[in-house]
Amino acid sequence: MNRKRRNYNDFLEPKKKLFKSSTGGKVLPNCIGVWRFGEGDVFTSVPKTWSVAQCISSLRKKLKEDGDDTGQDLDLWVKNRCIILDKKKLLSDYPGLAKLYLIRRPESRDAPHRYRTSKRDVTDPYSDDTCVIMTCSHAISPDNLYAYAWNKINNGAIDVTCPAIPDVSRPSEQCAHLWNFKDISIRACLSNDEINLFLSKMFSNWLEKQKNVYLCPNCDEAQQDTCDRSVIKCRYCKHSFCVKCQGPVGFAQNICTNSECQQSLPNVRNLLRNCSMRTLVDVPNCPSVRACPVCSCVIEFDEEDSCKHMSCPRNTCQAKFCFICLKVKTDTYYWPCGGAYEQCDPAKRQIV
Hints:
By secondary structure, this protein is of the alpha+beta class. The chain has helices at 52-65, 142-154, 181-187, 192-208, 259-274, and strands at residues 31-36, 44-47, 74-78, 83-84, 99-104, 116-117, 131-133, 139-140, 160-161, 178-179, 213-215, 222-224, 231-233, 240-242, 277-280, 283-287, 289-291, 298-300, 309-311, 320-322. The termini are far apart.
């Protein structure tokens, strides 16, 4: 028997009519284009000199003119950088902006009647908000579900698991039941734009964990390069870009000439060579800046009385190592240099 293949479009809200672009489908000079998820043509253009708040105000007016303003809260998303613009900042505070996506928030996050429960919120047991029941039988309010899921995904996760602790006498053991994204989207009352926002960020997180796969900054299409080149040409839009800084590269160039990209390695070397020395867990003369011994990601130790064990913040690495001796943890349970506050011999300044 043939079965229809299901995808995320099966549970999206019905598509609304497409609105005609106010700029004739082109981005105006000295402006930044704003798109709506699912539409090919640019929705409108905003001057590069505006603040983010001015952009939001202008977009709300444009939506009202199109008969699509329902008083929803609005945000702007930079897809290729995976960031939501701060409404207190200027567009000029984000160098290199070329493409923005409009995010319309839902008017409310009232718990759907079908999933309502009298159980307490696993993330906030003192909350009086109405909760929804999850597939693992634990409960959470729609607002907290959105906040928890977005926090996990915004910090590099691909999957969202239940944070409940069934046995308070064993606080280290979580429920950890996998929450399906479809269940999250329905119970958290995600808008169409928020669903696209989550999927875009989840895809970006997955992309960061793949070797030699990059997202074209011009057309947002994924590119795979098995030759370890520093400059690649998009097979879809023919745009050439640097895989390190994402900056454009001129035709027929094989090396990025972006000043920031060229200076990054010397700056890292200078930082490792001249960083201050400090005492960590009673071990003197430890450099305050280290490069991850696996991927060379730079990490500065700036927390007082913190332990010596570190996790690389880069999603594609996440290696665990000692900040003092630089030994990498390879065993599931044990560190090669002892406990988090045990002394060990400090490694010398690094050279990369």
